[in-house]
Design brief:
Helix content is 0%, strand content 68%. By secondary structure, the chain is an all-beta fold. It has a twelve-stranded antiparallel β-sheet with strand order 1-2-3-4-5-6-7-8-9-10-11-14, with no helix packed on it. A two-stranded antiparallel ribbon has the order 12-13. A hairpin with a 3-residue loop joins strand 6 and strand 7.
């Protein structure tokens, strides 16, 4: 079987033994080459030269605490297991990420974020997200479940000369200050500590 979308921006091909391949090019929202096989509910696939503009997916990647404004994602991934909850291996780099946080009084970025996938674990490798010479070293991890985040932990550590212009609102009270040191968030999509 074969399927073509548009003027060839998406091409899918499959065979009776479960092997498949896919190629996507602009203007399709994601680009890259994938090939793999599927048997029943299980599958495996290798995705090479994956690329997308985060602005396409900003509403899906945003919450009241964090919103994505721009960035480009590039990398290679391997998926295996059940189609609805696969194990993911590989790495992605988010280049030029610009985001807003309800906890910081200025936009974050642009910054390049290195991400690694290990099964159901997504790791943010240490990276300086501070502006203009400020040192804000960010790290984090998230447990994935059915393509979504089940739990997360995120930390930003400053050096003694760097400050984060923080803000926090709770039950109508608003606080703003500059903070130095270790700032940590953890939780689930439903609650945060």
């Amino acid at each position: 079987w074969s399927f073509l979308w548009g003027k060839g921006e998406l091409a899918l091909h499959g065979s009776p033994d479960g092997a498949f391949s896919a190629d996507a090019v602009k203007p399709f929202p994601v680009q890259g080459h994938a090939e793999g096989s599927a048997q029943g509910k299980d599958w495996s696939a290798t995705i090479q030269n994956f690329s997308t503009d985060l602005s396409w997916f900003a509403p899906l990647l945003s919450s009241p605490a964090f919103s994505v404004k721009e960035g480009q994602v590039h990398g290679d991934l391997r998926l295996s297991g059940t189609f609805v909850d696969p194990e993911i291996e590989g790495s992605l780099t988010v280049k030029g990420l610009v985001a807003l946080s309800s906890f910081v009084r200025q936009p974050l970025g642009p910054v390049d974020l290195p991400l690694e996938f290990h099964g159901h674990l997504l790791k943010l490798l240490p990276v300086n997200v501070g502006p203009r010479g400020q040192k804000w070293i960010a790290t984090g991890a998230a447990t994935l479940d059915h393509y979504g985040i089940a739990s997360y932990q995120f930390a930003v550590q400053t050096d003694s000369l760097s400050t984060i212009p923080a803000q926090y609102e709770y039950t109508g009270l608003s606080a703003q200050t500059d903070v130095t040191g270790l700032f940590q968030l953890s939780g689930t999509p439903q609650e945060m500590t």
